[in-house]
Amino acid sequence: MSGVFIRVMITPYKHIDIGWPLVPLFRYIADIENNAQWHSEVIHAHWITRNENRVGCTYKEVKLINDEEVEIVLTVSEFIPYQKRTITFDNKVSFTIQFEAVTNDWTRLHLSVSERENNHLAQAVMSNLTRLKNMLEEVYC
Fold first, then answer.
1. Residue 7: pLDDT band by 50, 70, 90 thresholds?
2. Helices 22-30 and 118-140 meet at what angle, rounded to 10?
3. What is the topology classification, in CATH, of domain 10-140?
4. Local structure of residue 105 (DSSP, 8 states)
5. Is 59 within 8 Å of 47 (Cβ atoms)?
6. How far apart are CA 49 and CA 29, in angstroms?
7. Cβ pair 122, 116 in contact under 8 A
8. Of 117, 138, 120, 110, which Cα lies nearest the Cα of 14?
């Protein structure tokens, strides 16, 4: 007999190298107060539950989309310090960023997204990660 199960696939998409050491880069990305600096549409973000990154904690981002403020609630669904962070919204769509030290001064970010929203979400997150790379490398290098 075979069992039936449903699984949401998280598929690898792309990676990007950023000229920052792993630990400070992880801390910067994990600090939601920085989101408005590198997320293209985010005006501000704040914690709803605890003021920290832990599985199950939620935060709200206010985004400017088509000249309207839109609130989105996001949940930290996986958090391994200095290794991996997964964010879920709408209780189904998620993206994961895995952190890999390439050298002492370079970190590779691996992006995976939930299969249902693969193209649009992955493109948006990669665009923001590219923006982050350009911003941080200008400051650090």
1. very low
2. 120
3. Alpha-D-Glucose-1,6-Bisphosphate; Chain A, domain 4 (3.30.530)
4. S
5. yes
6. 19
7. no
8. 110
User: What's this model's pTM, rounded to 2 decimal places?
Assistant: 0.84
pLDDT of residue 105: 94
CA angle 137, 70, 55 (to 5 degrees): 65
Kindly give, in sequence order, each residue whose CB lies less than 8 Å from that of residue 52, ignoring residues fewer than 6 positions away: none
Judge whether 45 and 128 are in contact, CB under 8 Å: no
Helix (H, G, I), strand (E, B) or coil at 80: strand
What is the percent of the chain where pLDDT is above 90? 67
E-assigned strands of the chain?
10-18, 42-47, 58-65, 68-80, 84-89, 93-101, 107-114
- Kindly state the tokens that stand for 88: 């879920």
| The residue to which tokens 């920085």 are assigned | 34
User: Cβ distance 70 to 62 under 8 Å?
Assistant: yes
Which residue reads 């699984």 in tokens?
A: 7
Name the amino acid, one letter, at 120: H
Report the SS3 class of residue 17: strand
